[in-house]
Amino acid sequence: MPPKTKPVTPGAHVPGSPVADTFDPTNPFIVQSDRSILVEVDNPKYAEARDALAPFAELEKSPEHIHTYRVSNLSLWNAAAAGFTADQMVAVLRKYTKFPIPPALPADIAETVSRYGRVRLERVDADTLKLVCPDKPLLAELTRQKKVKEYLGDRLDEASFAVSPAHRGVLKQALITVGYPAEDVAGYVEGADLPLDLREVAASGLPFRVRDYQRESADIFYAGGDARGGSGVIVLPCGAGKTIVGIAAMALLKKNTLILTTSVTAVKQWRREILDKTTLTAEEVKEYTGETKDIGPVTVATYQILTYRPDKTENFPHFGLFDQRDWGLIVYDEVHLLPAPVFRVTATIQARRRLGLTATLIREDGREGDVFSLIGPKKYDVPWRELETKGWIASASCTEIRVALPDDKTRMEYAVADHRAKYRIASENEAKDEVVAELLDRYHDQRVIVIGQYLAQLRRLAERFDIPLITGSTGNAEREDLYNRFRAGQVRHLVLSKVGNFAIDLPDANVLIQVSGTFGSRQEEAQRLGRILRPKSSGEGDAHFYTLVTRDTRELDFAHHRQMFLTEQGYAYEILDERDVLSAKYRVPA
Length: 590
Prior knowledge:
This protein is about 35% helix and about 20% strand. It is α/β, with parallel strands linked by helices. A 7-stranded parallel β-sheet has the order 12-13-11-14-15-10-16, with helices on both faces. A 7-stranded parallel β-sheet has the order 19-20-18-21-22-17-23, with helices on both faces. Strands 7-8-6-5-9 form a 5-stranded mixed β-sheet, with no helix packed on it. Helix 7 (about 170-175) packs across helix 13 (about 370-375). It is globular and about 75 Å long. It starts with about 30 loop residues before the first strand and ends in an 8-residue tail after the last helix.
């Protein structure tokens, strides 16, 4: 659901949007009464129309010529939270529609958008909040909802009920479930002070300046310290510097901060960046992982340690970290991967400021509504293509290469296998190895990552091409050494398992060869594409993303789903046959 434009001031006019109900047969949209929008890819207005639509619609299907978007309640509420009005959204549909839009749709969109903020959570005193709804019939309806009623206290007046601070999170979850997302303006505990400033020259000696979009996103989250800020999600591409956004927010708040991220490698990356770009010292920035359990004014922890428990019947022993210090800010890195148990504890700490960082709001478990209610709505995003145009991330070409199963024996093995085994057989297809060989030869002097799902396949490739392999069992010291050698250009090619998906600082990789993926995960595609989108050194050229897929198999079905993410971000997706790649005519000249 990543929108393509930055937030706007509520009530502002969308540039170029008509005010009358217009349509044009040359336009790319077909707007339907079920809230689906068909978009013609080959239309000259496609790119601008897609970018205007994406802030309030979700991409559902992306075949070659017609893409299908859907306007969902959550996509409308996220857009509303980012400052878009119903009139602006309808104006986009009218500007780009081929036929008259269904008469009832504008009213439907307006009614749904109006639901956001009709119910508010406000503070009464230190120990009491209140649910406020000036619409008396609506309040009466909500109080009869079983999911809502159990979290309401005494009636305070005709328009409000008392709410225990302990129920702040679960009440917001209940309200979004019944279709009335609350605007939370109950404010936050301040947290313990932490003096820090951003450096103008990093500790590494390099100049440092927060980019305009990074500063803008941090400012929008902070909102000058107002209660309407302080919770929400920032959506930025991998490689666009989400870590810097988190650091900029820390510098605005100057409070004790807890940062949660996906791996020990990511913990070390965050700590390295904080020490390099702020005035904080090593004594003030601590790591809390399976290896080291130190707590300081800034503590960086993994989701894995928080969700560890010796037995499923026991409590989570490390949840106490949330109460170890008077945190003024909690940062959720890669919020689309937030484990379910962390949602539970997040529901109880709604008085802490919460910043989510991600490249995509899509969750494979469908819990986007919980991100909205517990972390906060989307506050800012910027199109990948816009950052690419400005040179902040690299230009990228995306190519799917379809490979046949190698022989009748393998085809028969595939034919009689169960569903899960079929996917693995297709993913580990040894015929892919020859395509990998061709691509490694083509990009022999560039920095290439080969990444996949299955260790046997990756070991086979690493051994054949004599390339270092990094898996989950690779020690952190060895892993960091290989990453550093890769950054320095001493190692040109790496093979990575799934450990390479998240928060790894590989700034100079510019070719990625995906030999197997995880069941069509769009979030995974976001992370893998992000591995190659950092700006390139002069002479290195564009980034190249290759995904190898076995034709006529389940892997091809999942590849279609993953492709939707690339389409959402505006990338063309070329499809080639293995024979095209292996033939001399397709070779890139030396």
